[in-house]
Design a protein that fits this description.
- It comes from Streptomyces flaveus.
- One of its GO terms (molecular function) is oxidoreductase activity.
- Belongs to the short-chain dehydrogenases/reductases (SDR) family.
- The protein has 258 residues and is of the alpha/beta class.
- It has a single domain (2-252), classed as Rossmann fold (3-Layer(aba) Sandwich).
- The protein contains 10 helices and 7 strands.
- Strand 2 (42-47), helix 3 and strand 3 form a beta-alpha-beta unit.
- Helix 4 packs parallel to helix 5 (114-142).
- The protein is globular.
- The structure holds nicotinamide-adenine-dinucleotide.
- Residues 22-23, 25-29, 47-49, 72-75, 100-103, 123, 127, 151, 153, 196, 198-199, 201-204 line the site of nicotinamide-adenine-dinucleotide (NAD).
- Residues 22-23, 25-29, 47-49, 72-75, 100-103, 123, 127, 151, 153, 196, 198-199, 201-204 line the site of nicotinamide-adenine-dinucleotide.
Length: 258
């Protein structure tokens, strides 16, 4: 995964900055950590899976990236506060916050339990609210602005069958992004969202083949995206290349549902 980012000409875009990425023990979050690290950021991996997070940080260190990890359940305010503080203690104040942690608990409206609705909304939406709130507070205090990127989903734009919980949470992230972008612009903090489409990760590999094929048929580019193709967009939004972009939602879908 890191080969493309490290070998590319992105070196230096985030030199001297510290980035916190939630849910970065694997999948898209891990790729984001690698790409931001490849561009010069020090990275803090927060994940509910402590062991996988530590292994992920070790792998990044082996690739020459300054990385550390901390167990963090994004639904717990204290743990998110501790994650942001861990960044300040280890690498300096957070300059980039990526709210990426996510889960799915799919079922139709008829069959979904309230606990499954609440769990998904809590991880994606409350988790990102916690991340935005604590990162913004640290960025304000430091006084040098910053960039917050929320990982939404195309499901938040179009709604997915069997995902009322996930689609609601991902649409909610758009509102959170825009409202906080307005509140934080004066402090030089930009807040944007990315809406990936079908990306090849553990989350989507769990999907039945028929569902995978049906989604592929909707994609003009006729292929799934790779985690690196999401991570590169996050790097753009995190960096000064996007210095005049805030409150934006970028779709990374190969043209699906344009
Ligand atoms: N894979 C896709 O096609 C796709 C498409 C659109 C959006 N997304 C979004 O991208 C993000 C990453 O997805 P992925 O495919 O890499 O999933 P993944 O399941 O591979 O990784 C998710 C990570 O989040 C962690 N996590 C779960 N609950 C957590 C919690 N409460 N606190 C902290 N960490 C927690 C997991 O341990 C895991 O490491 C999610 O927000 C997902 O909704 C994925």
């Amino acid at each position: 995964m890191l080969e493309t980012s490290r070998a590319g000409n992105d070196m230096g875009l985030l030199d001297g900055r510290a980035a916190v990425i939630t849910g970065a023990a694997q999948g898209i979050g891990y790729e984001i950590a690698g790409v931001l690290g490849g561009a010069g950021a020090s990275v803090v991996i927060g994940d509910i899976n402590e062991e996988a997070a530590a292994e992920a940080a070790e792998r990044l260190v082996k690739h020459g990236i300054a990385a550390t990890s901390l167990r963090c359940d994004v639904t717990e305010e204290d743990e998110v506060a501790a994650l942001v503080a861990h960044c300040a203690d280890t690498f300096g104040p957070v300059g980039v916050m990526v709210n990426n942690a996510g889960i799915t608990r799919d079922a139709t409206l008829r069959k979904m339990a309230l606990t499954d609705f609440r769990a998904v909304v809590d991880v994606h939406l409350t988790g990102a609210w916690n991340g935005t709130r604590y990162a913004a507070a640290a960025m304000r205090e430091h006084g040098h602005g910053g960039s917050i990127v929320n990982i939404s989903s195309i499901a938040g734009k179009v709604g997915n069958f069997g995902q009322t919980n996930y689609s609601a949470a991902k649409a909610g992230l758009v509102g959170l992004t825009k409202a906080s972008a307005k509140e934080l612009a004066g402090a030089g903090i930009r807040v944007n969202a990315v809406q990936p489409g079908l990306i090849r990760t553990a989350m989507t590999e769990a999907m039945p083949q028929s569902a995978w094929d049906a989604k592929l048929a909707e994609i003009p580019m006729a292929r799934a995206g790779e985690p690196a193709e999401v991570a590169q967009v996050v790097l753009f939004l995190a960096s000064d290349m996007a210095s005049y972009i805030t409150g934006a939602v970028l779709e990374v879908t190969g043209g699906r549902y344009m």
